[in-house]
Amino acid sequence: MGARTSRRPPEFYMRLALELARRSPTIPYPNPWVGCVIVRDGRVVGKGFHRGAGTNHAEVEALIDAGPRARNATLYVTLEPCCHHGRTPPCTEAILKAGIREVFYALKDPNPRVAGKGAALLRRHGVTVHGGLCSRESAALNEMYVKFQTTGMPFVTAKVATSLDGKIATRTGQSKWITDAVARRQARRLRAEHQAVLVGINTILSDDPHLGPRKAGATEPWRIVLDSHLRIPPGCQVVKSGKCIVACTTKASAGKKARLERAGVRVMSFSGKQVPLKALLKRLAREEIISLMVEGGGEVLGSFFDLRLVDRVCWFLSPVILGSAQSRVAVAGLGTARLEQACRLRDASIEKIGSAWLVRGNVPHAAIQ
Question: Which residues are catalytic?
Fold first, then answer.
């Protein structure tokens, strides 16, 4: 009997694989979210998902689950099987050894080490391979991984919390709290979806934020601080977190740099008067930080928008009005001179979170480096 005797369409099994892909208890970055289902004679005989760098890939997990039932079966996976040795052996090798006859994959792997090579290898060894099934869903699931692999830059989310009139603090600098506790909990959940959180030095000096998940057992993100002259206090919360990167210029004090490094801070120095954001992002990507949430302040967010480095916006809008031209605005920087040049979100949505509204959307004109 052939490998495909299922009464259900292939899309059904691929959507099962997509559901599995999100089951990883921690974010798998810099690797993608991947789920896999193995079907034989119309029955699911194996399931698996990737749990993070250094662990089995989804295909291997599903093959282990299926055991000998994998022979002559059909494998559905949300990303093209890899064909190179990384932290783990290639999945194509395991698929061939198990005797899989047919493979459906959703998205071609944008990693140059794979990028069609995995599918081609399987075909050369007699496996029937189909690509592109539910590719849009898989691409949306792995938008951070795709951005990283295709541009060498992290995926950047701009997270903002403002009053109705777009302010992040009063004219006297008070900012705690514009949104209520429910919205702040949601913001921390969004933060947990990223490997790193970035703020400017003025945010550290005025608020001394924690920038962590504040949940026992949760993965701690990297705290990244833009601080050209190393004004950051050694006793602030982000330094004490043990996962702090401070980006400065080469003009910063060597003594301050040494003190921060003794405190466990990673200091990244760049030439120029200010930290060049594009160069910083590329360096973070080389360190396999592929997802970054920028939380302010206004000048920092303005610079990211001016340089078109933002991929997604998560904007909490609180039903309060602060007024005053001296109140701090959420997005400063140069801005746009003409409305047709404005940042217009794609696929925007809005939901009620506590007393606030959360507006989400992607930026279609994010810079491709």
Answer: 59
